[in-house]
């Protein structure tokens, strides 16, 4: 697993695109609808490079060895830092996904833990996330110590365009101050 810098994100964009397309085809919307193609997904990933460069976002990629074919991106997670002065103590877990062929091996838990640890190092004291109500991800978040804050009906459409509720979760990482400083997380 590696934390990506902007150049690394651009280099991994095709592999991340394959992962995103697979995840959407598997029924998770993640903000996208059915028919998402590799080119659009890769462009979306490349578009995140400025947020990585200015520290608003951190992204990790998990890869596996594909022999002579190189390495395949099997998982990813993002950590979006709040830039408003009254919210710099919090961050959001975004786009946690694992390729359907690589699930059940602890990858999602490892990615989540990496993002949580980076948040602690950055001085973040509160993490938030949302996930589709009734999804398998809920069990992961509960077992990792996340608390349910509530649900919102008809929050987002799945890839087929059907609206579903989302459940909001939070996790306290420790006592903090409202005047916490910038969130520069060193690359690993």
CA gyration radius, whole angstroms = 16 Å
Oligomer: single chain
| Low-pLDDT runs | 177-188
Which term fits the overall shape? globular
Which strands sit side by side, in order, in the main sheet?
1-2-3-4-5-7-6
Give the amount of beta strand, in percent: 25-35%
Number of helices: 5
| Class by alpha and beta content | alpha+beta
Total number of β-strand segments?
A: 7
- List SSEs in N-to-C order: EHHHEEEHEHEE
Give the overall pLDDT as a whole number.
91
Sketch the major β-sheet.
7 strands, mixed
Distance between the terminal alpha carbons, to the nearest Å? 10 Å
How much helix is in the residues?
25-40%
Can you characterise this structure?
The chain is α+β, with helices and mostly antiparallel strands. It is 30% helix and 32% strand. Strands 1-2-3-4-5-7-6 form a seven-stranded mixed β-sheet, with helices on both faces. α1 (6-25) runs antiparallel to α2. The longest helix has 20 residues, at 6-25. The chain is globular. The relative contact order is 0.17. Mean pLDDT is 91; it is low at 177-188.
Record keyword descriptors for this entry.
single chain, globular, seven-stranded mixed sheet, 5 helices, 188 residues, alpha+beta, 7 strands
Summarize the structure.
The protein has five helices and seven strands, in the order E-H-H-H-E-E-E-H-E-H-E-E. By secondary structure, the protein is an alpha+beta fold.
């Amino acid at each position: 697993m590696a934390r990506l810098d902007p150049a690394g994100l651009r280099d991994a964009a095709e592999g991340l695109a394959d992962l995103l397309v697979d995840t959407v085809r598997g029924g998770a919307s993640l903000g996208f609808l059915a028919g998402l193609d590799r080119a659009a997904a890769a462009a979306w990933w490349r578009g995140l490079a400025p947020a990585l460069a200015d520290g608003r976002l951190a992204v990790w990629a998990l890869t596996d060895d594909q022999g002579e074919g190189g390495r395949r991106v099997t998982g990813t997670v993002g950590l979006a830092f709040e830039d408003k002065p009254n919210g710099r103590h919090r961050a959001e877990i975004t786009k946690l996904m694992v390729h359907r062929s690589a699930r059940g091996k602890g990858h999602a838990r490892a990615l989540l833990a990496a993002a949580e640890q980076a948040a602690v190092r950055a001085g973040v004291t509160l993490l938030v996330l949302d996930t589709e109500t009734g999804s398998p991800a809920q069990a992961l978040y509960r077992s990792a110590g996340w608390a349910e804050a509530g649900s919102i009906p008809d929050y987002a459409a799945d890839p087929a365009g059907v609206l579903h509720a989302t459940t909001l979760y939070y996790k306290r990482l420790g006592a903090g101050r409202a005047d916490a400083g910038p969130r520069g997380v060193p690359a690993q």
